[in-house]
Amino acid sequence: MNAPAPHRGGAAEARRRRRHRADRLLRLLGLGAISLALGLLGVLIATLVIGATPALTQTKLRVTFAISPELIDPADPGIGAYRLILRRGVAALLPEQPTTMAEWREIGGIVTGNTQFAIRDAVMADPSLIGRNLTLTVPVSDAYDQLGKGLTSRDTPPERRKLSDREIARFDALTARGAVSRPFNWELITRSNSRFPETAGLAGAIVGSFYMLLVCFVVSFPAGIAAAVWLEEFAPRNRLTDAVEVNINNLAAVPSIVFGLLGLSVLIGVFGLPRSTPLVGGLVLSLMTLPTIIIVTRAALRAVPRSIREAAHGVGASRHQVVLHHVLPLAMPGILTGTIIGLAHALGETAPLLLIGMNAFITDPPGGILEASTALPTQIFIWAGSAEHGFVSRTCAAILVLLGFLLAMNAVAIYLRQRLERKT
Amino acid sequence: MNQSFQTHVAPIGAAAAKISTRGVDVFYGPKQALFGVDLDIPRNQVTALIGPSGCGKSTFLRAINRMNDTIAGARVEGEILLDGENVYDPVLDVVELRARVGMVFQKPNPFPKSIFENVAYGPRIHGMARSRAELAEIVVRSLRRAGLFEEVKDRLDAPGTSLSGGQQQRLCIARAIATRPEVLLMDEPASALDPIATAVIEELIDELRANYTIVIVTHSMQQAARVSQRTAFFHLGRLIEDGPTAEIFSTPRRRQTEDYITGRSAAQRPGP
Ligand SMILES: Nc1ncnc2c1ncn2[C@@H]1O[C@H](COP(=O)(O)OP(=O)(O)OP(=O)(O)O)[C@@H](O)[C@H]1O
Ligand SMILES: [Mg+2]
Fold it and tell me: Where's the ABC transmembrane type-1 domain (chain A) (predicted)?
């Protein structure tokens, strides 16, 4: 109906050029969007890494404490003038001995406030130390740590810094003697929370988060799969199941803090479960992951080709055999991936945990799901709100640890998916 | 409603039939795919279903073992009797029905499991083997009868989906006969096979006939003529005519049948 060569000539050429231009534009837009996203992510990570770097090391002081028998109760090594032992130990490293009470206090304050208890615990564990020397490498307190890392400038006017000139001089003397070191800060993940940033770590939060995810997984994985299988494979199509379906989708969109309120009023209020515990936290989080798992499981079940179900029905498999022997195994990679991503999501959830009291100050890792504990995101929340300088870098480091766990979980999801898919 | 003009050449009594259908309508949602099909399928014979694409051959086949139950919105009306029992009777166990009526689907659909497991699955869930050895024997025998054993004997652990299309189809045939059904429904079992594999399958069909009742859908007139004793011709959801294969091919009663088997379209047909 057209001219003999509809794809040649000026008009066709112009049309093609326009089309190619549109293609290029679309590609540029996509590239631009991705670069923006990656750029923002890069800025975020870089900020965190820079912020967290100081927390990777900890300034420490190597001190030899003389455990004089006359300072310790012979009947009970738990009772003794450990503060004096501490102060004398540090003072022995200094060129000038303190004369006033205030000077003694300052000297004791060079090391972290827990040190006298660390000495006491060592003596209680090994009473043969009495009468001998005990050498410990202890963290210095936050202000000296900041000074040691060069985060406090010596040029700041004295009234605007925490340490006086005299204190700085003492620290320099200790450094000159070689008693100060700055090793890698393993305590960040081996110790639990503390009032003092120099001894605060994430162990309690990591263990708490682990228990919580365990509870969450144990509750929501089987329940989610069972619900999805029923909805997808067995439920009749009627108003009731339609309503259930719509509400599951709604549930996935409920703000997490609402689940926290539910946990507070129902789990703690009505059922009397102990507050601040991984059990309650895990249950609240499973309310959040359950709809996610149901949705991904249903999608994975739906993605199993009809022909496989027909093949199984065709040899006379009953409905449950079709599901258990054929459909579910094929859907498993998708289900696992979705579940891990749901759990990763739960790991980073903060708001509901604040409501059920998982932001308490707890200095020991929980021994089980019934002991009070914190979680990684709530620990970050607590540290971010603390005044001491040392908590700033520790907060960044804690965020990196959390991101690391999230990344690891996603990597596991990808690995599992590829492995399971290769097998089928 | 329009069965009056349906011609049964050499009618076989419903009593002799393994399967007889009466007034079968099948709907997919609002769309009706089959209209009042009355057909008797005699035991120990091969019945071929022929007809143009989309005329409802697969739909009819799938109505017999209630495979349409698994399609949302599909509905079957009328009666389908298997040994005089209505397969749509609510008391009938559909699992048992499908064990008695095996099926080979139009598209090969092996399980994404090993070749061995594909064949062993049916016998295992129906408790047909008392030992691993017995099960292995069933698997080997079924594969051999489907003409696949020689090709796969060294890799029974390989996934069934790793086979070629034609091999997959033979695997599905082996899977279907492994449960020793009374009736075998085959939906274009040879459409993906080369002539040699087709010959193996046709031989198998002929051999199975002694013990089984076979319904086969085929687009190949030659195949219908070779393997079947009776042929039924479908057109636009209706059974146009059925009878002994030789008669359908030599002296069809109806114009549509003749046009179809001679390969003429309605437009080419000379005016009356
Ligand atoms: N699942 C389904 N949903 C809706 N309509 C369907 C479905 N399956 C088949 N149909 C319709 O029913 C009619 C008969 O289809 P059927 O598959 O039985 O044809 P057929 O004779 O087997 O064709 P072919 O030779 O191409 O396999 C067709 O019009 C088809 O569109
Ligand atoms: Mg078909």
Answer: 206-413
